[in-house]
């Protein structure tokens, strides 16, 4: 009989995003001699590249075929699928759920089938949906989520307060798990910079503005384009690269076209070499409407990139080095543009800063392993 600790990670789908990248990096670095790792997702009908990445990282990957939450009736099929899954996959010591309250039922069945440690991990400060009704339901479901969970995790205090409440954070019932990154993959490399800029036809004298994120309302791409357009008005030798995919991409493409700047904006699509693309960038922008603690913000700092994000709505915990600055979304696109163009351009070595703040993946995974062992009594 194996003495390994058996852990089931859950995320609703393996589309490219900060939560999913967090999962891949942790699975990749966790000690497989001590832990058996499974990953479970729902099924929105799409097969994502990160599904292969999670398998390559050393996890067994499972999907609840045909299960996606669309209506209240979806929970009937969801419940049946969970009964079948836990009936066929026994012996989990820990379930580590990286999703919002609508998936509370997962923890209900985990408890029913004897999983003793049930972790809920908050990665955000708002619901992804625009629907007021769905948001209201999501808030109501926070109560049963907390009921069935045994442990509360969050990527930041702000994300913890959003899902579990300020009192839980103040009472130190929420454990902060940093969105750590593989520093070695992101630290600056001149050769990589030249290769990627050549690939995208970026001249040496051109300033490349970069963004990594799904085309969703949360990431505020429309305002991002406005900022870039203002920068272009002041500096003709500026280009922008947008890395990611999503339902809002066509709208942003149309806006770029209407502004007459299509030749200045690169839509790179989904890329697995974000670390290399960041080498080619000169400035990183993340004017999000809300965030838990953005992984890409830490990655950009690991790359030493001068970076700018939204003051007040992106937690101040994101700033772990002098590479990152905050600007309020109350300011105009021109104020953003002027601040950025007049700001720092030099790259800095941030390894000591990331290490001191706990954002080096090897250190973060060791902390997570220690916590798992402590909770199962090893």
What distinguishing features does this structure have?
378 residues; Rossmann fold; 2 domains; seven-stranded parallel sheet; 13 strands; 17% strand
Plain-language structure description:
The chain is an alpha/beta fold and 378 residues long. It has 17 helices and 13 strands. It has a 7-stranded parallel beta sheet with strand order 3-2-1-4-5-6-7, sandwiched between helices. It has a 6-stranded parallel beta sheet with strand order 10-9-8-11-12-13, sandwiched between helices. The longest helix is centred in the last third of the chain and has 16 residues, at 361-376.
List the helices and strands and how they pair.
Layout lengths: L4 E6 L7 H12 L5 E7 L7 H8 L3 E4 L10 H15 L5 E4 L6 H9 L4 E6 L9 H9 L1 H7 L2 E4 L2 H8 L1 H5 L3 E3 L6 H4 L3 H10 L7 E6 L8 H14 L3 E6 L5 H10 L6 E5 L4 H7 L2 E4 L8 H8 L4 E5 L12 E5 L4 H9 L9 H7 L3 H16 L2
Parallel strand pairs: 1-2, 1-4, 2-3, 4-5, 5-6, 6-7, 8-9, 8-11, 9-10, 11-12, 12-13
Helix pairs in contact: 1-2, 3-4, 4-6, 10-13, 11-15
């Amino acid at each position: 009989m194996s003495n390994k600790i058996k852990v089931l990670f859950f995320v609703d789908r393996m589309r490219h995003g900060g939560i999913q990248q967090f999962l891949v990096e942790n699975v990749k670095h966790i000690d497989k001699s001590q832990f058996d790792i499974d990953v479970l997702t729902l099924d929105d009908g799409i097969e994502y590249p990160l599904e292969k990445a999670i398998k390559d990282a050393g996890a067994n990957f499972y999907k609840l075929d045909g299960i996606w939450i669309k209506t209240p009736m979806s929970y009937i099929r969801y419940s049946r699928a969970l009964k079948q899954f836990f009936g066929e996959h026994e012996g989990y010591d820990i379930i580590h759920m990286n999703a919002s309250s609508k998936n509370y039922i997962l923890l209900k069945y985990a408890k029913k089938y004897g999983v003793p440690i049930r972790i809920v991990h908050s990665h955000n400060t708002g619901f992804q949906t625009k629907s007021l009704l769905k948001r209201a339901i999501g808030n109501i479901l926070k109560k049963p989520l907390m009921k069935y969970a045994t442990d509360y995790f969050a990527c930041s205090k702000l994300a913890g307060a959003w899902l579990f409440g300020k009192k839980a954070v103040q009472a130190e019932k929420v454990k902060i798990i940093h969105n750590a990154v593989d520093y070695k993959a992101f630290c600056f490399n001149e050769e990589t910079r030249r290769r990627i800029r050549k690939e995208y036809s970026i001249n040496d004298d051109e300033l490349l503005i970069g963004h990594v994120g799904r085309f969703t309302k949360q990431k505020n791409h429309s305002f991002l384009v406005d900022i870039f357009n203002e920068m272009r008005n002041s500096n003709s030798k500026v280009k922008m690269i947008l890395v990611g995919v999503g339902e809002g991409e066509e709208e942003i493409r149309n806006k770029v076209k209407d502004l007459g700047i299509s030749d200045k904006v690169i839509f790179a699509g989904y890329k697995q070499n974000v670390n290399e693309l960041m080498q080619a960038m000169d400035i990183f922008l993340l004017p999000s409407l809300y965030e838990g603690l953005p992984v890409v913000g830490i990655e950009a700092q690991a790359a030493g990139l001068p970076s700018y994000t939204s003051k007040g709505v992106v937690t101040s915990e994101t700033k772990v080095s002098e590479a990152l600055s905050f600007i309020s979304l109350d300011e105009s696109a021109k104020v953003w543009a002027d601040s950025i163009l007049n700001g720092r351009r030099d790259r800095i070595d941030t390894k000591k800063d990331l290490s001191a703040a706990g954002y080096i993946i090897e250190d973060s995974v060791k902390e997570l392993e220690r916590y798992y062992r402590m909770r199962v009594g090893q």
